[in-house]
Design goal:
The complex is a heterodimer of chains A (310) and B (386).
Chain A: H1 18-56, H2 77-118, H3 123-134, H4 141-152, H5 157-164, H6 178-201, H7 206-214, H8 219-248, H9 251-256, H10 265-274, H11 279-304
Helix pairs in contact in A: 1-11, 2-6, 2-8, 2-11, 6-8, 7-8, 8-11, 10-11
Chain B: H1 4-7, E1 23-32, E2 35-45, E3 50-54, H2 61-69, E4 76-81, E5 84-85, E6 96-99, H3 111-121, H4 127-137, H5 153-165, E7 171-175, H6 183-200, E8 203-208, H7 211-217, E9 220-225, E10 228-233, H8 235-240, H9 245-250, E11 255-265, E12 268-273, E13 276-281, E14 290-296, E15 302-304, E16 315-326, E17 330-337, E18 341-348, E19 360-365, E20 371-374
Parallel strand pairs in B: 3-8, 3-9, 6-7, 7-8
Antiparallel strand pairs in B: 1-2, 1-4, 4-5, 9-10, 11-12, 11-14, 12-13, 14-20, 15-19, 16-17, 16-19, 17-18
Helix pairs in contact in B: 3-4, 3-5, 4-5
Classes of the chains: A mainly alpha (310), B alpha+beta (386).
Chain lengths: 310, 386
């Protein structure tokens, strides 16, 4: 059973010459040099701040200290305090983000499909629609969100139409509601959903769709069995790119929500940090948000990101 | 190869057992903007036939196939399979399956899942079992769990074939499925395809631009050109008796000469070609008077240094050898015949070369090998078509 590469001890002997091994190592070292700048940036602007954030979240405010004065400590009760107080806002953030991601997928997939597949032969129209898709990025995020206030205003056409068809009570409002916040989130993060799906569907081989039809699959079955599984990497990237920023967003809730039942965790962190000047509390919440997203995303990747959908 | 697939008839696309079915195309036309891809094409393909649609690229053969598959709607005309009009049916409701030129295997599925795809859509309870048998038939059972990307071109081609065949379609469409394979594999797959068709007895419609492929595989060949069928029939018949210059030149090679019919007696036409008289059987001629194009296949011509070398040959032309190329089994000659043009022929290698470049030679052939085409034919039609 002994092959030439096995020594008596059963170890695999390296059959390459010393020269080859040295060349291999040199190649490996070049790779390390190339990664260094990026690594440095990550350490300086990500790893280090995270450590500082973690430390800050455990600081304490000594009795009699001025506002904004904290001393290093290991006060883990900070976490219990903020979680106890802001648990609903955290859950709401994930709830809103989930709804907004789902809506963005439902709205965004057909858009991506239209531009990437249906208009494949009509390059000009395809280009125009692509530009329109990216156009919102050329204007301010705050302004765009603000304009939703106008769109959803009581005298605006959306509210009027909904009232006319009886979907909204005659004394109802759209502004300052959870609906407005989710609409704003959906709108603002839609391009992050559409673009990855577009990039994926653009490479879709439409001959496969013909083949599926030829093999008795109805258009719906073809979509379910061929198009969707093949575009899964795009959907996967799109949902992550939408969900993560949406969960941490505070602009939409601040501009389009109210102070009662639309407050998101980002808003809380913002106010703890800038208004209440509770640095440890804000840091602890930030950390909780970061870890929760990390856990959610890991579960998501484990469940869908592997062979099942690829 | 296992015969289990052939012996058990299974449900076809729309519920009836299939042993292949007649296919009728009734005056189908396909227009793309200004371009007529297919023009008023009518065709009947009997059940169980291996039918080849042969033609150069752009002749409309693939469009015709796509219309049968339901991937393209005809601008006018109708299509029926086994007596049922399918013109308005979408592709997924037609009892046909296609082996695509690009194979179009689903990259996210295993080989087995690919083969089972059609069966599963038809809710066949034995889908997996039949898919396995299908893979065995193309001798790929051991690769069932691989992804298509892990297979070679020839293997992918077989998977595509199995994926279509396991559904026992009434008509199997093959869109140049061997085009991407190298010559050796191509010849091998031609044999296998023909074998499988004989075994399962389905109607096969094979689209190709390779005349040799069409002739070796098909029971009936239809030569297409410019969106129409030029001629249709068994390969030997098409080869021996072409009815148009295009068929004469595209299917093998032909020597075509312009002439005028001078007389007709006992079923033989006397045709004056460049001050010489050649003969054509009237039954082998499209036209019986006036201008005519007389053709003869190169291998039917006997080449000799002496006049009257073959006494039974009643047609003889003389000319000068302008090219002789030795290929091993034969020597190919190009002979310049004054007033006629260049005539091609070849001589079997029987140990000595019958003529050299510059020699004056005599070309003779039997009258029964001449064929007559309409006088207004372009003698070069289809010569360089691919």
């Amino acid at each position: 059973m002994s092959s030439p590469v096995m020594t008596k001890e059963g170890k695999v002997r390296d059959l390459r010459s010393k020269e080859e091994i040295r060349a291999e190592r040199r190649k490996g070292r070049t790779g390390v040099y190339l990664v260094l700048p990026g690594l440095l940036v990550l350490v300086l602007f990500f790893a280090l701040p995270v450590v500082v954030l973690l430390a800050m979240s455990l600081y304490t405010r000594p009795p009699g200290a001025e506002i904004g004065q904290f001393v290093p400590a290991l006060q883990f009760s900070n976490y219990a305090t903020v979680l106890g107080a802001y648990w609903p806002e955290l859950m709401r953030s994930f709830g809103f983000a989930l709804i907004a991601t789902t809506l963005a997928l439902i709205i965004g997939y057909p858009m991506a499909y239209l531009v990437a597949v249906r208009l494949r032969e009509r390059k000009l129209l395809q280009g125009i629609l692509l530009v329109l898709l990216i156009a919102p990025f050329f204007s301010s995020f705050i302004l765009r969100t603000q304009s939703w206030k106008q769109i959803l205003a009581d005298e605006g056409f959306v509210a009027q139409t909904l009232k006319a068809v009886g979907l909204l009570a005659s004394d109802g409002h759209l502004t300052a509601t959870a609906f407005a916040v989710v609409a704003g989130l959906t709108y603002n993060f839609l391009p992050f959903m559409v673009l990855p799906i577009y990039a994926n569907l653009e490479r879709l081989d439409t001959r496969l769709l013909e083949a599926a039809g030829d093999l008795y699959a109805s258009p719906l079955t073809t979509f379910r069995k061929v198009t969707l599984p093949l575009s899964a990497p795009g959907v996967f990237a799109g949902t992550l790119l939408t969900f993560i920023p949406a969960a941490g967003d505070y602009v939409n809730a601040a501009l389009l929500g109210n102070n009662r039942n639309t407050t998101m965790i980002g808003q809380v962190i913002d106010s703890r940090f800038f208004r209440v000047i509770d640095y440890p509390g804000a840091a602890a919440l930030s950390f909780v948000l970061m870890v929760s997203i990390l856990i959610l995303v890991t579960v998501y990747i484990r469940k869908f990101g592997t062979k099942d959908l690829m | 190869m296992s015969t289990s697939l052939a012996s058990e008839p299974t449900q076809a696309g729309n519920g009836r057992t299939s042993e292949g079915a007649d296919l009728h195309l009734n005056k189908i036309t396909k227009r793309f903007a200004e371009f007529h891809a297919v023009q008023e094409l009518s065709l009947t393909i009997p059940s169980g036939t291996f039918f080849a649609l042969l033609g150069p690229s752009g002749c409309g053969k693939s469009t015709t196939l796509r219309m049968i598959a339901g991937l393209e709607a005809p601008s006018s005309g109708s299509i029926s399979i086994g007596g049922q009009d399918v013109t308005g049916l979408p592709s997924h409701q037609r009892p046909v399956n296609t082996v695509f030129q690009s194979y179009a295997l689903f990259p996210h599925m295993t080989v087995l899942e690919n083969v089972a795809f059609g069966l599963k859509r038809k809710k066949d309870r034995k889908a997996m079992e039949k898919a396995r048998q299908g893979l065995e038939m193309v001798e790929l059972g051991h690769l069932a769990s691989r992804k298509p990307a892990q297979l070679s071109g020839g293997q992918q081609q077989r998977v595509a074939l199995a994926r279509a065949l396991v559904n026992r379609p009434q008509v199997l469409l093959l869109d140049e499925p061997l085009g991407a394979l190298d010559m050796k594999l191509r010849r091998q797959m031609q044999m296998e395809l023909k074998g499988i068709q004989t075994e399962v007895g389905l109607t096969f419609i094979h689209v190709t631009h390779d005349q040799e492929e069409a002739m070796t595989m098909a029971d009936i060949v239809a030569v297409m050109n410019g969106g129409r069928i030029e001629q249709m029939g068994p390969p030997r018949e098409l080869y021996e008796l072409p009815r148009t210059a295009f068929v004469a030149n595209f299917l093998g090679k032909s020597n075509l000469m312009r002439g005028v019919v001078k007389a007709s007696h006992d079923g033989v036409l006397d045709v004056e070609v460049a001050e010489t008289e050649v003969h054509v059987l009237a039954e082998r001629a499209v036209t019986h008077e006036g201008e005519i194009v007389v053709g003869v296949r190169p291998e039917k011509i006997h080449l000799s240094r002496n006049a009257g070398d073959e006494p039974t040959h009643s047609n003889e032309l003389s000319g000068t050898v302008i090219d002789a190329s030795f290929t091993g089994t034969t020597t190919e000659y190009l002979v310049d015949v004054p007033g006629v043009g260049r005539i091609g022929t070849f001589a079997q290698n029987r140990g000595e070369q019958p003529a050299d470049v510059g020699d004056t030679v005599y070309l003779s052939w039997d009258t029964s090998h001449s064929f007559g085409l309409a006088g207004d034919e372009q003698v070069a039609a289809g010569v360089n078509a691919t």
